[in-house]
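User: Hey, my collaborator sent me this sequence without any context and asked if I could get a structure. I don't really work with proteins. Can you help?
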Amino acid sequence: MTRAKDRGCPTIFPPGSAAGKLCWSLRDGDTHGISGEDIRKKMSGMTINFTSLSDPVFAEFAKYGDIIQSAYRLYEPLLRAGVRLLHYVGAQDANCAPAGIMSFLKLLQSPFQEEFLRTPDVPWPTNEDATIAHDQPELVKSIVEHWVKNVPFD
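Assistant: No problem. I've predicted the 3D structure and written it out in structure-token form, which is a compact way to encode the shape of the chain:
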């Protein structure tokens, strides 16, 4: 994958696209109002090296073909073993269309498959064009907190 020389974002993310806007703004230091110092304060003063996008990390994942590995094959044995999994994919993500996500989850054989199939699909209504919302960090934080605490969404 070639990279734009001036900013380092993949050229598949044009500056005007939703993903491009996010990538370019993150490369310019926009972390949606959260600075590295804010994060350190919330983590009780722990010193961390926070990087929103890292070319070396991307290169390591790409080197081993991570994007095309069949990680889903790990789901069934993990679920059977009682391991809780968080399968997070943005419902408005054009690369991972909701129909494909739901199809995958419905075919996933687990101790919970029957109950999952009986549960009605609930659409996520939106008027947004973008695949990534600017409030996504807040949404992801809420999703992860619910999952970690093992509490249902109201």
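In plain terms: The chain has two domains: 1-69, 70-154. You can pass these tokens on to your collaborator as they are.
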